[in-house]
């Protein structure tokens, strides 16, 4: 029996979604204020839902947030520390930004992790807006608007926007710098004019030959200022991206204008040095040179030489993970890549390929690999996809069906996980399911369009799916997995006892930074001998003991262990170890400091 009648309603629905989306896109793209407003609203809809609901994550986010908290409480804005340990792997920029937002909302005490995440939200939104600004001279306003939307919806960026780290802000500043450089190139006569490739886009969306040359001074200030701020956020990544693009573009086009237009003898380099050098000098003095040994010698060189912190992977890894990292539109790269390479000598394509391919090669050659390292190539890859769609977007049917399978497989897995994982841990999230189901339907419609070789019809379904799916994940599904956030349950269970004794509970073997952020800076991480001595001798001793290390604690007690009282018990999953764990809050029986505290037993 033919299944054509069963497919017809889906095909019709996919066509209608595609047509509606294209009409809305044309209306929004016709006005620059509408473009900017639409991008801001899109970013807020994608990123805001999880910013307060998602518990603090381990380990990087908790370390950044705790170091910023200590910066605020100590008043030392130069030396970065996590408890008593120096935190010199990254420069100070993101800590200052977090400190500013936390102070603006009332200070570090009793303020949720959401306040530390505001710079990441701002950085991710800046990345989308800067993509529009950067790519308009290359591929025209409407295609640049589409590329900016694709950048905003990339799953990796949505995740980073909800985590108090460096990477979302780094992407925003890097894209801003690249946009200023591209516009300087446009003013230098690099040939960034309307291309026959974009025949369907009206000429007014491109620079005309009679247009006035943009004033170079403000653009150079933006370029060098954004590079300086990016260096303060995460070291040399943004200058490396720009340098690699310069080299590729010069080779591909035979032009040195990209280097000359930067204004090396002007105010820009002075601005860059004024932003970067004062803190570098101050931390050099404060650390007695230790910052360079840690940030450059151990962190940067260590990542280039070997896989750090169990994150080593072979070359080619990113080709395997990009389909999830840049979902929902990563499968379109399969379709756009041949056309982009065929156009590699055209100025717009040379720039976008130079922005993405060399840095990707560097990432593949570096032993340490993490998914978020791909963030700097999101805007140019989105630009290549948008340019291909603007140029007609007619794929071979076989490749389009392969893209449909990849898009559908990842989308179905994400929607299914939103429903199944909370159920698996006994904490059903009905809001997550309610959002995941329409997202699943939109994934099916987008997949149908791709299967039929109609990628333009698939794009609106992709956008709509993320508007349902990302809030389902970030606001409801992940927070419902309380089992996977042990520190949150531990801090809640120990709070009444810590209030009695005037200090946070210590921990014998569970050493996640989130516990310090949630319980307090004075949270102590103890060895077995230290835990045994504390429980035997210290007044008001509170110690978290992990079952997997209980035998070592008993051995440290020796032949005369003290009588212990179990105040709370947490059954949880440690994501960084990848295994379940049981933690017990223990005190010494009969301790007078705890006599007035109410006992409790807690399960997440």
UniProtKB/TrEMBL annotation:
Q: Which GO terms describe its molecular function?
A: pentosyltransferase activity
Annotated localization = Cell membrane
Question: GO biological process annotations for this chain's record?
Answer: lipopolysaccharide biosynthetic process; response to iron(III) ion
Question: Is Cell membrane found in the keyword set?
Answer: yes
Primary subcellular site in the record, as a coarse category: membrane
Name the membrane topology term.
Answer: Multi-pass membrane protein
Q: What Gene Ontology terms describe where this protein resides (cellular component)?
A: plasma membrane
* Regions that span the bilayer: 36-56, 114-133, 139-158, 170-192, 221-254, 266-286, 318-341, 348-365, 371-390, 402-424, 430-451, 463-485
Task: List the signal peptide residues.
Answer: none
Which InterPro entries does the UniProt entry name for this protein? LipidA_mod_glycosyltrf_83 (IPR050297)
Record flagged with keyword Transport: no
What this protein is called in its record is 4-amino-4-deoxy-L-arabinose transferase
Can you name the source organism? Albimonas donghaensis
UniProt superkingdom: Bacteria
Give the record's keywords alphabetically. Answer: Cell membrane, Glycosyltransferase, Membrane, Transferase, Transmembrane, Transmembrane helix
């Amino acid at each position: 029996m033919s299944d054509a009648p069963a497919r017809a309603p889906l095909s019709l629905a996919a066509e209608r979604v595609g047509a509606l989306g294209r009409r809305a896109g044309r209306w929004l793209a016709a006005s620059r204020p509408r473009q900017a407003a639409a991008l801001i609203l899109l970013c807020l809809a994608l990123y805001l839902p999880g910013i307060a609901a998602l518990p603090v994550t381990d380990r990087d986010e908790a370390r950044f947030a705790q170091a910023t908290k200590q910066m605020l409480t100590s008043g030392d804005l130069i030396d970065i520390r996590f408890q008593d340990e120096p935190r010199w792997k990254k420069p100070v920029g993101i800590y200052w930004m977090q400190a500013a937002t936390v102070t603006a909302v009332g200070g570090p005490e009793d303020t949720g992790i959401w306040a530390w995440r505001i710079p990441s939200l701002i950085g991710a939104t800046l990345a989308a807006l800067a993509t529009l600004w950067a790519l308009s001279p290359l591929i025209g306003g409407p295609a640049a608007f589409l590329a900016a939307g694709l950048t905003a919806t990339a799953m990796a960026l949505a995740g980073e926007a909800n985590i108090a780290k460096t990477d979302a802000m780094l992407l925003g500043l890097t894209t801003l710098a690249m946009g200023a450089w591209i516009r300087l190139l446009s003013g230098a006569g690099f040939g960034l004019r309307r291309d026959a490739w974009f025949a369907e886009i009206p000429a007014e969306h491109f620079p005309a030959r009679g247009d006035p040359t943009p004033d170079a001074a403000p653009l150079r200030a933006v370029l060098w200022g954004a590079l300086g701020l990016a260096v303060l956020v995460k070291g040399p990544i943004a200058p490396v991206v720009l340098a690699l693009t310069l080299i590729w573009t010069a080779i591909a086009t035979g032009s040195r204008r990209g280097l000359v237009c930067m204004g090396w003898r002007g105010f820009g380099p002075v601005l860059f040095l004024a932003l970067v050098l004062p803190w570098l000098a101050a931390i050099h003095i404060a650390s007695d040179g230790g910052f360079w040994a840690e940030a450059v010698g151990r962190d940067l060189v260590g990542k280039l030489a070997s896989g750090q912190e169990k994150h080593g992977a072979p070359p080619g890894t990113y080709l395997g993970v990009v389909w999830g990292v840049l979902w929902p539109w990563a499968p379109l790269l399969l379709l756009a890549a041949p056309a982009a390479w065929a156009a590699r000598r055209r100025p717009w394509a040379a720039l976008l390929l130079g922005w993405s391919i060399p840095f990707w090669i560097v990432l593949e050659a570096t032993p340490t690999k993490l998914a978020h390292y791909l963030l700097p190539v999101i805007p140019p890859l989105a630009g290549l996809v948008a340019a291909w769609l603007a140029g007609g977007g007619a794929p071979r049917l076989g490749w389009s069906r392969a893209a449909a399978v990849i898009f559908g497989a990842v989308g179905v897995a994400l929607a299914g996980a939103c429903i199944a994982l909370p159920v698996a841990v006994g904490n059903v999230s009905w809001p997550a399911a309610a959002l995941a189901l329409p997202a699943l339907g939109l994934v099916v419609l987008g997949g149908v369009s791709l299967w039929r070789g109609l990628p333009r019809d698939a794009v609106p379904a992709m956008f709509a799916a993320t508007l349902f799916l990302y809030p389902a994940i970030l606001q409801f599904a992940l927070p419902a997995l309380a089992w996977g956030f042990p520190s949150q349950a531990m801090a809640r269970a120990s709070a009444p006892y810590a209030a009695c004794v005037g200090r946070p509970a210590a921990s014998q073997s569970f050493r996640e930074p989130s516990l310090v952020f949630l319980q307090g800076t004075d949270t102590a991480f103890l060895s077995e001998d230290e835990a045994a001595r504390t429980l035997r001798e210290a007044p008001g001793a509170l110690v978290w003991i992990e079952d997997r290390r209980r035998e070592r604690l008993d051995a440290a007690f020796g032949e005369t262990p003290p009588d212990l009282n179990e105040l709370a018990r947490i059954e949880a999953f440690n994501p960084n170890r990848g295994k379940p764990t049981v933690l017990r809050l223990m005190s010494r029986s009969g301790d007078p400091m705890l006599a007035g505290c109410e006992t409790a037993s807690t399960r997440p």
